[in-house]
Amino acid sequence: MWHVEGAFSDEMHEKVIVAFEKEMQEEGAKAAAMEAQNEASFSLGTPGVFERRRMLNAGFGERSGAIADRYSEETEQMPEQLAAELQDRRLAAAGTQHWALNAPLWMQMSGLYPQSHREMSPNERAGRIRGLLRRAERMIRWALGQRQKAEGERQMAEGGEQKAETATATASASATESGDSVIEQTVIWSPVREICVYLEIPQRVLSGLCREITGMSIENVVDRIRAEKLRAEFAKRLKAFVLEWFSVAENWRKSVGKKRAEIADMIFAALKSSRRTRFHRTQWAFELGFSSYQRLFRAALLSEGLTPHQMEMDVLEELVPEDEGATCVGGQNQKADGGMQKTATDSGAESLYKEAKPG
Question: What is the pTM of this model?
Fold first, then answer.
């Protein structure tokens, strides 16, 4: 702090400092409460961050005006240098609370300013990067969730080709009137670019920080999140094939006395055989929400440590009905056991059929 001799005594100086530190403690408590509200905005995606910053920036203007008025009053009561320092500290505290400093938003919320790297330990720097990545991931999950929700509503609303054509023809106009998004999100769409705009960070910088901590690019993070739903999607798609396989008498006989894993292997072999024609891995990846098979492959490994086909095999094994009657007493298959096997597996397949039926 500035120390001024003369008319402004040491006692007065000390009194100002004590009062100011108390003021800063109160501001710190307000900043903590505001930071909790700021954090909640990331779970609302880019609209939440945009709206929160818009509101806080407006508040910062009012706060800056009040701080300027305070400075004018204090220059009449204390040395100008001391009043200026108090003003600077008040502005810095207000800027931290309101995301309105002359720095990109991602720097303000992470503290990763260019001049501060030398003062950070490697562990502290990694912690700040992780905090930034967690916020970005929350925004990614919100964006992907909104897209999935919109896709589900669209499929439910489409009652036929005519209705779909009518909805398409009026979509742009209605979206503009209501303020909803008019962006057409194809399978190659990614929320990363939009998120980078509102965090005010170049995509290459965000990917570089992500690679520094995790080894993944930010697009890899998006694909890994998408892959979290792969197992459920595979189960939905494979139920009908499993039922069809069990409906063939020859397959019933082959499954007698077999373990679930062995039956799953036979079903998977049949699945591969059926895909020899009119099947392409890229189209398959598109249907699952990925722009290429290579991205689907890597996403499955990052999410579950399995390739897509290994995940399918796991799902097939889970879909095979449990059948204790498949193995005969003493480990020998009797002639009559084929009937027992079919009856028992019929029961399992029936429950699988009920699960697979819509509604």
Answer: 0.71
